[in-house]
Amino acid sequence: MDVRKIDETLSVSPQILAEDLPRLRELGFRAVICNRPDGEGPDQPGFEEIEAAAAAEGIEALYLPVATGMVRDEDAVAFGAAIRRLPGPILAYCRTGTRSATLWSLAEAGDRALSDILGRTRGAGYDMNGVARRIANGGRTPTDTADARFDVVIVGAGAAGISVAASLRARKADLEIALIDPADVHYYQPGWTLVGAGVFEARDTARVMGGLVPKGVHWIKAAVAAFEPEANAVILDGCRVVRYDRLIVCPGLKLDWDRIEGLERTLGRNGVTSNYRYDLAPYTWKLVGEMKRGRAIFTQPPMPIKCAGAPQKAMYLSGDAWLRRGVLDDIEISFMNAGGVLFGVKDYVPALMEYVERYRAGLNFFHNLVAIDGPARRATFEVSEPGQPVRRVETEFDMIHVCPPQVAPDFIRVSPLADAAGWVDVDQATLRHRTYENIWSLGDVMNAPNAKTAAAARKQAPVVAENVVADIAGRAPVAQYDGYGSCPLTVERGRIVLAEFGYGGALKPSFPKFLLDGTRPTRAAWLLKERMLPPIYWRAMLRGHEWMAHPEPIRAAE
């Protein structure tokens, strides 16, 4: 007997036998639903046999047969009525459990998000992507066949999406390109660190989305619900369908605030802030300006996260502000890092440690924030030191800057495009999907082992554009991505350690060392971050001008 839980009310399983009913009673089940027609298989017990065994155990039984591969809309309605009427918990079964899982998915379509349904059934071992369009349509079979179709569809209009759209247009202006994103506003997220330091104004990091979509690109202002890669289709909320010849997936990642117990209800008050949100970065600077004494905590969750240096950037700039105001002696700074190192590329660590010592910051590795009580000003960390039992510690704070855990968006994690960890599965050089040859991905959502930064997307966009155009022409991939990422580590106001690196931590400096030594804090790097990078982002990167980002050709194997 293979019982698989979907939710608190329903579990599903393959065919059960009469002798399984006592065990089902012990497990707490109060009703069973048979979704398998009698006589479907030679070794299958009839429903009457199951019903009699269920009655002997005080379990209610219902016969709701569905022919394999033919789950009708009315079947799903009847199943939904049954699970509302029957006492729970309920076990539904068929030959493998798939029909029962499908019925539940369609019955719940009007009340649950598509990603929740796909996630729960996937967790039970059933892939419902084949009926995703019906789920998105409220559990009903769609009748609208007037689908839009484009040469290239791009999912996500962040830094990666707009850049790759512009790069494609620059290479092949006759392409019919659609950019799918529901957002009204586009943010220059790398600027939020400086908003939290009082250098930038938050409003200067935001632009209206409509003004940034490249000319000639169709903007579909909608959210993606699911993918049907076998049918070359993207399903939008409301069951609208967009078809493509080639697909580029770059919706960014999801900030998983809910994973930290109590965090969301205290963000923006009680001394709890984060530069990872547009509306909270100004609060960071407000807290820094008001703080004269006490304890300030800066957290970093397990990788991957976007801009891995951002949590410590907030610490350095806050420490610098307190040092300049003469109050640092009365402030205790603690950096709580779920990882085991200060920064993943060792060449930059010596310079960073100088500033850790300057601000007398305590480094606490293997400390992962799991809960926060804002009114009590208390944070709980799970400590997972190598070779030691996991333990929890609580600490008080006057200010805490939180970097949230980060995951791929729900509609990506439950899709056929994702790897086991939920990220889009690509070849790390060509950025082409490993299974579907007409799909590419870039930006924060794909699984190449590179830093998730806007600078990485700036390098990735031309690579994807080159390879998509080559594919249209019937050629093999021609460009490769070397893992480049950049993290301008703002160690004090006016100086930056400009970390630039590729796969395996290899240094990838953009400038000669005599002009800018990235392993040391420099004013030149600060000037680049404050004055040059924002206009480069708005006026070059998002417009397809590939300044210092020309794609590297694929080298023949030696």
UniProtKB/TrEMBL annotation:
One of its GO terms (molecular function) is sulfide:quinone oxidoreductase activity. GO terms for biological process: sulfide oxidation, using sulfide:quinone oxidoreductase. Its cofactor is FAD. InterPro entries: BLH_phosphatase-like (IPR005939), FAD/NAD-bd_sf (IPR036188), FAD/NAD-binding_dom (IPR023753), Prot-tyrosine_phosphatase-like (IPR029021), Sulphide_quinone_reductase (IPR015904). Residues 2-110 form the Beta-lactamase hydrolase-like protein phosphatase-like domain. Residues 150-263 form the FAD/NAD(P)-binding domain. NCBIfam families: TIGR01244 family sulfur transferase (TIGR01244). This is TIGR01244 family phosphatase.
